[in-house]
Design brief:
The complex is a heterodimer of chains A (about 450) and B (about 450).
Chain A (H helix, E strand, L loop, with lengths): L1 E7 H21 L3 H11 E3 L5 E3 L1 E5 L3 H13 L9 E3 L8 H11 L1 H13 L4 E9 L4 H16 L5 E7 L9 H15 L2 E6 H11 L7 H16 L3 E2 L10 H9 L7 E7 L4 H4 L6 H13 L36 E10 L22 H4 E6 L8 E9 L3 H16 L4 H5 L5 H19 L2
Parallel strand pairs in A: 1-4, 1-6, 4-5, 6-7, 7-8, 8-10, 11-12
Antiparallel strand pairs in A: 2-3, 9-12, 10-13, 11-13
Helix pairs in contact in A: 1-2, 1-3, 1-6, 1-9, 4-6, 6-7, 7-14, 7-16, 8-9, 14-16
Chain B lengths: L2 E7 H22 L7 H4 L15 E5 L3 H8 L11 E3 L8 H11 L1 H13 L4 E9 L4 H16 L4 E8 L9 H15 L2 E6 H17 L27 H14 L1 H4 L8 H8 L9 E5 L12 H10 L16 E10 L3 H11 L13 E6 L8 E9 L2 H17 L4 H5 L6 H23 L16
Parallel strand pairs in B: 1-2, 1-4, 2-3, 4-5, 5-6, 8-9
Antiparallel strand pairs in B: 7-10, 8-10
Classes of the chains: A alpha/beta (about 450), B alpha/beta (about 450).
InterPro entries (chain A): Delta_tubulin (IPR002967), Tub_FtsZ_C (IPR008280), Tubulin (IPR000217), Tubulin/FtsZ_GTPase_sf (IPR036525), Tubulin_C (IPR023123), Tubulin_CS (IPR017975), Tubulin_FtsZ_GTPase (IPR003008)
Main location (chain A): other
Protein name (chain A): Tubulin delta chain
Chain lengths: ~450, ~450
Amino acid sequence: MSIVTVQLGQCGNQVGQELFEVISNDANDTQRKVYSECSSERFFNETANRELVARSVLIDMEPKVISQSIAKTGKSGKWRYGDRSHFSQKQGSGNNWANGYCVHGPRHEEVVMDIVRREVEHCDCLAGIVAMMSVAGGTGSGVGTYVTQCLRDTYPNSFILNHLTWPYGTGEVIVQNYNSVLTLSHLYQLSDAILVHENDTVHKICAQLMNIKHISFRDVNKVIAHQLGSVLQPALTGDSHGIYNRNPIGQLMSSLVCHPEYKLLSVCNIPQVSSSSMAYSMFTWPGLLKHLRQMLIANSKMEEGIDWQVRAPSLQPEGTERTGSHRRPGFNTSLANLLILRGKDVNDAEISGFQHPSLYTPWLPADEAFSMWKTPVPFNKYEKSAILVSNSQTLLRPLDNMVGKAWNMFASRAYIHQYTKFGISEEDFLDSFTSLEQVISSYSQL
Amino acid sequence: MTQSVVVQVGQCGNQVGCRFWDLALREHSHVNKKGIYDEALSSFFRNVDSRLMSSLQAVLVDMEEGVVNEILQGPLRELFDSTQLITDVSGSGNNWAVGHWTYGSAYREQIVDQLRRAAEHCDCLQCFFLIHSMGGGTGSGLGTCVLKLLEEEFPEVCRIVTSVYPSAEDDVVTSPYNSVLAMRELTEHADCVLPVENQSLVDIVNKIKHMSHSGKPGSVIKKDSAIISGQGGVSGAEKPFDAMNNIVANLLLNITSSARFEGSLNMDLNEIAMNLVPFPRLHYLVPSLTPLYTLADVNIPTRRLDQMFTDAFSKDHQLIRADPKHSLYLACALMVRGNVQVSDLRRNIERLKPMLPFVSWNQEGWKTGLCSVPPVGHSHSLLALANNTCVKSTFMELRDRFTKLYRKKAHMHHYLHVDGMEQGCFTEAISSLSSLIEEYSQLDATKDRPMPDAARLNIAT
């Protein structure tokens, strides 16, 4: 089964390109034929001349990024983008969500959906659609939201996963919080699940774990691609009997998104080291899993700087109802977790630490809350990788900050005229704020 | 790549405009030594018969022929097609009403035609740049009439106006009238205004001349590097006002650099308006440019880069006389050119933030752009555009000068004689200016008051 990705805006296209690089390198690298073939089938279309063409649609409202991507991949010889799989305009969206959603989106709907349709038709069987975009600018966020809506209307029975990149908290675009609020509130209705990477977090990984001195967006994008690739590459589920999972997105959804109010997913992938230290690093499953579990409950995104003081609350005695009093400060409660293990001796890994009910919210039985996939094939040159895709309170604080800042700005109605002139009213803003406050409230009460 | 059209109106507008074309050509030929037509050039220059010296996307308007004739006889004549020039003979007599109403209606069709032609030559028209002065008759009156036309004919295209404001000792007695009448149009019809005060330009020029003559060791200014210098450009010897006009031309060069050259963080012109204008009428941005010159002593270490950021926020580098540090910042944009990384940018913003008072709802109100090509003669440069309440003081001074004349009804008959002009125009203009000042004042009042976060919506659980 195949996945079609839709890359939207500058960020979506840049991250998307790195993602296909990672996947192609990973699949080529391995000596496991079955894994390679499964990965190829999932992400690439093989043409008559044995070329690998990415199952991807590239959309942007200005041409520079897409042209650079196509040129670069054309040269590499390992894979390329389809000749007619891209669409760009000249103007850009001016960092304005309303311009993207109300003007560019509808204007180019037909052309864009045609390209998507063609890509979907190339798939023998569609596993799902992954839309990649940022939330701070105008195209990824605004056009991206509109396109997601079109995808939902055109493919009502397919799984749609939105991968979002959240901007640096200290600001790249002044109106980024407005654009983010509008995007998230709409996607919550349209998307099946929303997988988030934050620039701030990934930046820290680059600085502290990978020791990169002058961090560029390219470094950040490579880390995001590595993490996203490690989730989407083939794996074996508990009951798949040695055959790689044919429905990865569907399984991801059913493992993690059991309630429509809870759709925000985050990813942790360890270990993450600089390529120069890789040769000297030795990792064991117990070590990795211990760190990963603490990262989950203490809400840390990296193996360094974990707060080991945070402990899981003790369980109430049998028979009594677990109430909110079991929540401790600093403790990250999960709704559901998916653990993916890739690499050597994967069957020896002891994962019971992730199954304990104290990690999870009381209203979901712990055995439904935890799932695991694994494969003995190592991922992207790491002998062992442990990946945790988590539906938990991790994103609560960043989301709350984002909404708070946007609300403060909205209270003075600053910049609102820039949105109303394209058709987004104050009412629309209020609706978006209300939706997100609801999401914040739901996650707070886990 | 997107294109822009430059519309230069009146004597000042055309003189500044010409300095701009001159310097732009110098910049592009410097970058493009082989003289091959490239993408960046297309940003302004239309390709006619694949010649390098192609026609420019410009419209030149003046109601007396002196300046435009000089252009047609000068070395830039190759660049302009005679249809791009709209002229008359007698000028506007420093009378806004004549420029706006008389010439405005007489030349309306011709102007609209010419604008349409320029727009049609653009693959993708993103912005109109209007250059004019406020104190005279043509630039001020006809210029603002053109602004209205641009809004009517091309409502979706951004309008950025560079306006040169007269100094208090301006020799045109009626300049306060002309300026205030023009202000109303700018407030209503422009997307962004970059006000420039003649006095600031004079101060900067004097400072540079002083530096180059002082002969202090280690302070010799590199040839060609002063932004007042037009050396190496197409036109010949420098004329008076050239130095001042060069500064304004450099302002335009920097603001358009992202559209003309590549960079790791592009800042489109429509993004400038989007991020810097939180309320429609408050669109006056304080420009400041650095460096103003480069010292020849190359042994000075690269502390210069951080110094550049500090300078951008010093009063010596501003193009209007105002005090942003003691007023309130609503938003600020930094356009950096040259070999500067994102990390340098972020580091300097962190360093400067504590000294700059930002409005409570926009504490992180910075918009940034990185263009990899520096200006000629420099390794890097920085243009800061600040939406700051300090412009209020410039406007209040203007209002005072206006009131002094208006109270005595001095010279008003010259205006009221003009068809289309009435007493009401004056009262509306001054009232528009007053309410603009009031809007800035209200924001100022929030400055030292600690603002609590707005109460969040309460969700029923």
